[in-house]
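Quick one: structure tokens for this chain, please?
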Amino acid sequence: MTQVNTIKNSDGFYKPGQDAELQSLTNISVGAAYLVHMKTAQTLSVSGTAPGIVTMPLKAGWNMLGYPKSTNGTTTTVLGTTWTSAQIIKNFEAFLDKTSGTLTTMKPGEGYYIYMNTASNVTF
């Protein structure tokens, strides 16, 4: 963790070296997405037990969503009926909305921004 500058999600952040009472992000959760700012380019490895079924609540508006599976999945198939309540899903390289886009595959370990017109859940 010496090369990690900051870890953020939709609800908080973690910064190494800060007092515990200033840390609002204290756990990493399966299915959540995180932005990790490194001091230098590094590979950050995360280990743990492979999850079974994971259900993530999505609020109306923007959400950060992880993809907790071990194989690629077609974006609209992975999202299933949740896609009907979504407006757009994107990452730093691509997007997909109802009419266009190139984000056709969700990849293991990657995170996504998804805009929901109404609250819903997605189950992986």
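The radius of gyration is 15 Å.
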